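Chapter summary example: a protein plus zinc ion.
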Amino acid sequence: MAANSTKTMIIKNGYLFDPLNAIDGEVKDIFIREGKVVSSLSGHEAKDATVIDARGKTVMPGGVDAHSHVAGTKVNAGRLMRPEDHYKSVRKKTDITHSGSGYTVPSVYKQGYDYAAMGYTTVFEAAMPPLEARHTHEEMRATPILDMGAYMVFGNNWFIMRYLKEGDIEKAAAYVAWMMRTHKAYGIKCVNPAGVENWGWAKNVKGLDEPNIHFEVTSREIIRGLAEVNELLGLPMSLHLHANNLGHPGNWETARDSLMITSSLEPNSKMELEWAQTRESAKRKQTVYLAHAQFSSYGGSSWRDFCSGAPDLAKYINQTENVVIDSGSVPFGPATTMTGDGPAQHDLYMLTGQKWSNCDIEMECGSGVLSLMYLKSSPVHATMWAIGLEVLLLIDDPWKTIMTTDHPNGGLFSQYPQVIAWLMSKKARDDTAKECHKWAYDKSSLGGVDREMSLYDIAILTRANSARTIGMAHRKGHLGTGADGDVTIYDIDPGDLNVNDPSYIVSRFSRPDFTIKDGQIVARKGEIVYVPEGRRYYCQPHMDEDVEKDMMRDVRDWFKYYTVGFANYPVPDKYLKNPVPIPVNMPMEGSGEEVGRWQK
Ligand SMILES: [Zn+2]
């Protein structure tokens, strides 16, 4: 570990792909001091610097995963449910690392090492239920190397549904602000709004305008309300939506109609922090971020006439500016599906008969976990594979897309290099389609897509846009002055890159030569060489104190229905190592006025 003791680093002669600074493969040197990118080093600093010669290699900012399931009770349920999963992949103990096992749901140690070895330095957990926040933070605390944060699930929360029914956006915002501070959450996640609550009565909701049981609020009202709360508080990320009807044939229309709900809102992030320099705007443009679009881009009316709805959904997204999606691509093989969408998981259980677990989380949300195998021979799985690539290839502007597998739902984060190969190479897609059930190309438009993504596009989809979308581009996803010194060096010479050799792309993206975090080498060719502790990002939104007092009376009143005592609800500070709170919506100094509270 002492090998990394120098405070300065120079990465020389590499081909740099840094889309937020509009750098597309230029040969450029990168200077890092005290963990941050700087424009130059003094002669004395340069003399002591760790120097890496990246001649003939591809250099990108460290990878940023905007949507992955890596911490918390449902992830751990997946580990417990699947002992067979632990045999499939293991990592040996070394002098500086723990041992670890697990293929679709690796142990906390192994997932940190595996992400870092693949060039990723920042990963966000996509669904944290408030009552499980302590467990989520415990697992993030135990995950080595990675900077992390977690989105909190609000779409079926009883307090939110009640406030929205009463039309009280201010109280809803006060509740969200208090919950995010209390549980140390980063963003607002909304999963099958109104439907998961109905699942408590073994039901779901069918459309956006069906009032749910008891609360009598609709999905549309919840999406609109939470998006308004999000922009009222000025959170770094927009509303993160897991749409209704997920996993059902014909659901692309539900997805489109859901995305239209926030189209009249303006993005309005109000974070109190310093921004590293970028040439492109580092602020998010979207007012809704659709999770794992593949699972919401289905055509047809049943599994018999199932087909891709991705061309239709992409057509809508191409003509609007308020949407970003991540893909939830399906690279085949074993997976463990895990989601807050309890009813969707039950439907999948009825279809597959696989091992399944289900959970209801008091007045907050629910979840389900299921083991699954995606097969090339399955007509539906083959079509899902195509859809998971169509949603990235048919949306023209790469700044509206992020590459994920919704790990471990559509596939595993360790399969990202395979997805990259399909995006960069038509031949790779055609080769795979030949091994698949004919529905892959017959029921989608993928066979007719000629687009092959460049290294610049891949850098947008795997770091620049994921960072910008979630509001982390003030320090992540680029290498402008002031950014974190997170750098990945791939053994790829852009001049020599032959995209007709997909196995080359897969191997080079799987094992970068160097993963550098905060100016320190953490991994070399897949081997972990240094194990720092990552940071935890969370938001501290400010809200009017009187409204918050009013809201707290409701919380205390209803808390008698909870199984935990009120004092045990918050996440104590000691659950976080290296916490980085982000102040949001702070009152303007001296004036007593709050900044732009009602800006629309
Ligand atoms: Zn997910």
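Key point: The radius of gyration is 23 Å.
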